[in-house]
Design a protein that fits this description.
By secondary structure, the chain is an alpha+beta fold. It has 4 helices and 6 strands. The longest helix has 34 residues.
Length: 155
Amino acid sequence: MSRQYFEITEAEALIPRLAGLMGEALQLHAHLRDSIDGLGQSGHVVNASVLSGERELELDDEDQRCLARARMLFTALRENVETIEGTGAEVKGLVDGLLDFRSWRDGTTEVLLCWKLGEPGIGYYHDTHSGYAGRKPVVGHEFTNRRTEATNAQN
C-alpha cells in the first residue's frame, strides 16, 4: 500500500468519522483483552495465531465459548482498523486512541500529524522517528500533502 500524505485540513476533515471508528476500536480492544485475560486465567496462551484460527486449543465448553467471542472481537477489530487505515490514517495506539497522518511540514520535511481520541483537532506533529513523546505544536507551520517543487529539484 502506498503512503498517503495530507494537508492538515484534509486530515482534520476526517476526524469526525475517525473519532467514531476509534471509539469503536477502543471498545472492541477492551472486550478482546477481557476475553483473552479470561482464557489466560484458565491457563491458555492466546496469541494472533489462535485468534485467527490458525492454531486451535483444547478447551472445555465454557472456554470454547470465550475463545469464539474473542475471535469474533478480533475479526471485528481488524476490520475496524482496516477501515481506519483505508482513509490513509495510521493507527498508532488502540489503548489510547492514537492516529497519525503523514504530511510535509512547510513542504520540506516529512512528519506525522498526530491526533488522539478526545482532542478537538490536530494540534501536534512529530518527526517520523520520535513518536507521541516528541509531539510539537503545529502552530507556525504549513502542512502539505506533497513536497514543494524547490525541494524536489534539490533531491
